[in-house]
Amino acid sequence: MSGQYIKSNSPYSRYGLGDLHSLNFAGTSSMAGGMGATYRSYWETNLTNPASLSKLRFTSFEVGLFYKHSELSERNTGLKAKSDDGNLANLSLAFPITRSWEIMRDTLRRGVPVQWGMAFSLTPFSTTSYDVSVSRGLAGIDTVNYNYLGTGNLYRVNWGNGLGYKGFSLGFNLGMVFGKNTYISNISFQDSSYNYGFDESLREERNTSGMVWDIGAQYEFVFKPKGASEADSDVDLKMIVGAYAGGSAFFNTNSKQVYLRYGKSSLTHSTDTIRNTADVKGQMNLPLKIGGGVSFGKEFGWLVGVNYEHQLWSLFRENGAANPNLTDGFNISAGVQWIPDITDFTSYFNRIRYRAGFQYGADPRQLTGADGNSKYQLYTYGGSVGFGLPIRPPKSKSMLGFLNLGLDIGYIGHPELINDFYVKVNLGFTLSDKNWFVRPKFR
Q1: What does R_g of the chain's alpha carbons equal in angstroms?
Q2: Which of 2, 8, 164, 398 has the fewest Cβ atoms nearer than 10 Å?
Q3: In this structure, are residues 110 and 78 in contact, taking their beta carbons and an 8 Å threshold?
Q4: Cβ-based neighbour number of residue 213 at 10 Å
Q5: pTM of the entire predicted model
Q6: What is the pLDDT of residue 3?
């Protein structure tokens, strides 16, 4: 219905595991994920490529939130609807274990300058939220209404590590996914002549749990001017090459299913329970994803990067069976970050991180058209802008953290199916400190 307003409705979350959430936090989201493979920071966390954790020099506590507004439309029917959604985007604590930069500068200390960073985080893994009604005229039966509803979330608890030696870094994530989804399908006859017929309802409650993993690597090429010292490395021109991959062990599912049949008049039985089963066990797997990218610039100046990710969803299996609505997908993105002058404490605007990005891709979900034969794969595109606002208390020489603000404008769908134009606001707060988890020293 035109103008209908729904709290949260993503029709395509009915397929696969729902709408999957990326591991990009507010900062990298503002660059449209264009530096997912290569972004690394002293203060901020990038879990897309866990090798980046080796760059940490400060303890970083990060909290992220998002708000999303969608405009749904269908060209063939002219129907339109609006929906809103919002949730926790991430909760993370990351910190350096070793401090290689101190070893390299202190001639009295001995040891291999290996940098080790670690992170613990909680992020949404996927969201299922849809309420779709379809009316069809069947020969000899007239109009039948099909209503599909789904709700629920899967969450990911993650442990990440990154090890760096000179310009090379390796990292891994180990995560546990858990959560519950509810799926309801209703079928009802709309013609009053079918008072002696039965409407049907199938309800399934599914608990899911399983393990996921990511591995990543980065290499840093430094273009150092002649005569520059190692201490000046933060302002050197650099090219960073990164790659990552991720997948899962099998996900275990435990479902409860209730199948009901309703009578439409007092002359028929009011309700019959056709099936009521509990503890229905199953398995499914999350297919492999691979990605890589390159970035070029200065850490505290201008920085530009590109990223490509490929998802092999054609290999998805649920209880050994392939899903006809899933195929391989990809995403290509580009991003830029610019800091005018991080050392200028007379102008706050010169120390802001200005960010922008663009992404385009093919979503793994594909649907059958109205003719029952044509297959349409969803595609997505969008642009992002954002700011990293440094927080520094008065009279303090060090930063307390960052307030990351981002705005995404994008599209997912297909002209022959439902079109979803959305606006998403990302808000992230990063609290940083160099003295947490540091053993006191006495000289």
Answers
A1: 26
A2: 2
A3: no
A4: 16
A5: 0.88
A6: 41
